[in-house]
Design goal:
The structure is a homodimer. Chain A is of the alpha+beta class. The first copy, chain A, has 2 domains: 87 residues, no CATH class; 214 residues, Beta Barrel (Cyclophilin). Chain A contains 5 helices and 17 strands. In chain A, strands 14-4-5-12-11-13-3-2-15 form a 9-stranded antiparallel sheet. Chain A has a 5-stranded antiparallel sheet with strand order 6-10-9-8-7, with no helix packed on it. Chain A is globular, with a radius of gyration of 20 Å. The two termini of chain A are 39 Å apart. Chains A and B meet through helix 1, strand 4, strand 5 and helix 4 of A and helix 1, strand 4, strand 5 and helix 4 of B.
């Protein structure tokens, strides 16, 4: 008996050869897709299409189960990223916990006593308690220097979408704004009712369908590059909104450091694919135009359809 | 110190009062949103907006951690649903296992020995080994009798989207087709390379960003109504494509029955909101037009943005 399992799996990895485009109203073109699979495209990618991690923009979170790497986005949230650096350097998260896991929404971590002024952990020197909202940036900030690459595909949430510096980005040229999109694996800074009430000490990561309705409502600070499954596969909290009922259900955070503060010989040698590279464009096309196992090619992707690949430095 | 956690959480549940619509190009209208929160809308919903489970169209999967309820979709996959009924009635899945959990993709279950003809569990009497592909149905099947309600929101994957009988549905009027969409929690039937190679014995559920590129490529058979977190929070498999390396890593399936075969007094008394009800339309509007904690209202939703609610029968 054929094993459906392998083949269901294979779809994500299937070579995309010549495909008849989807007869959707907004995409009339017929187009040849790359004749290579995602693995073949990655295997053939030139070294110049990859970049190293920036040690000042990478958080290393240590759980008992392993290491989570988070790339920060100073171009989009400069004040929050500066504060997060100060929090990490001050050991703010060491010994704190993952407090909340809400299915199909977010995993969130910070100070379990954050609401109790008497017990809350003080912020370290150099960290601010409140920051300005960084829900969007002027659109010229995703110009040439950011290597913004626009997707041709329609997006219901924003007039323009694409990628910049490894992040999914949405923009509204008429309003002159650009912002990071809430895709799977994106990390944001929890806030109170006031727009300037976040400081980066309480962070969340998206673990389900992209909650794009949050875009422009909260400051997004980065993306999980590695260890996502350590945050997404945690037991869901059973109290309201996915908070854990009991302290012992929480997952402890052993330590969070900036990669720059990890001894050089202990640093994970990870590389990230450049999103203004030909390799990334080919990978997106391989998802847009499918063949092989696929009998229907969507002729479409969205910014949350694909995560930017990482690899161990060769 | 304010606790960002509660407020990040509150967004999903925030009352949507008067909102200025998003200035997105495709939605110029300004519109008043319902002045009620999702909870208030649900609390005020008339009994007639809810329906009971159909015992012939509901699967009850028992794991050591609890019960998963799956609603089947005979309107969209009649042959697969009939086969799944025969498989359940023949005890096919009893003692089998969850074989694969791939982060941000699917959890999949079936016969671990399915690929080994000598060891594979034989299909029970009345179940077919191969079924015709049921990737779409004629569009007239989502006519009046199905209570199809169209979303006004643009969707990049299909020219028309909406809900029918509790399921997210996409359609292409020009091609005369309608199909179930791969949203979070939707259940499909794994297949091999041949389009008619699925039989419903190997099933998967979406546990991440909606892989809409699978639409029209595989038969979707239903939706998880309850117990989703028992499938989404499992450890990710570390072998290729999220399969488990070792048999002991798998999660055992104790038993799968049709609800009709569960003694009446043991049946979970769950109700599902009707998707052609005013309550469902109000809930969608409360997500489209936000206020309160939100400073930006997206003016948009998509079929995978919201799951159809269930409740314990009052």
């Amino acid at each position: 008996m054929e094993h459906p399992a392998l083949c269901v799996a294979a779809m994500l990895l299937t070579a995309a050869a010549l495909t008849v485009a989807h007869a959707a109203p907004r995409r009339a073109e017929t187009r040849q897709a790359p004749r290579q699979s995602a693995q073949e495209i990655l295997a053939a990618s030139p070294a110049a299409d990859w970049r190293a991690l920036d040690p000042e923009n990478t958080l290393v979170m240590e759980l008992a189960t392993g290491q989570v790497l988070i790339e920060l986005a100073p171009r989009f949230a400069p004040a929050h990223v500066a504060n997060i650096r100060a929090l990490a350097r001050g050991g703010f998260w060491d010994g704190l916990a993952i407090l909340r896991v809400q299915d199909n929404f977010v995993t969130q971590w910070g100070d379990p006593d954050g609401e109790d002024a008497a017990k809350a952990r003080p912020l370290p020197a150099g960290a601010s308690a409140r920051l300005p909202a960084e829900f969007s940036v002027p659109i010229d900030r995703i110009g040439k220097s950011a290597g913004f690459t626009k997707l041709p595909d329609v997006d219901g949430w924003a007039p323009r979408t694409g990628f910049a510096e490894g992040f999914p980005v949405a923009a509204d040229p008429k309003a002159g704004k650009a912002w990071l999109a809430h895709c799977y694996g994106m990390v944001g800074a929890g806030r109170g009712d006031a727009v300037d009430s976040s400081n980066g000490s309480e962070l969340y990561v998206v673990i389900g369908q992209a909650p794009r309705g949050l875009d422009l409502n909260i400051t997004v600070v980065g993306r999980v590059l590695k260890g996502m499954e350590l945050l997404s596969a945690l037991p869901r909290g059973t109290a309201a909104m996915g908070f854990y009922d009991k302290p012992e259900q929480r997952t402890g955070i052993q330590r969070v450091r900036l990669l720059a503060d990890v001894p050089a010989e202990e640093r994970p040698a990870l590389q990230v694919l450049k999103t203004d590279s030909a390799t990334w464009a080919q990978l997106l096309d391989a998802r847009r135009y499918r063949s092989g196992w696929f009998v229907h090619s969507p002729g479409h992707i969205e910014i949350c359809s694909a995560s930017v690949p990482t690899r161990a430095a060769p």
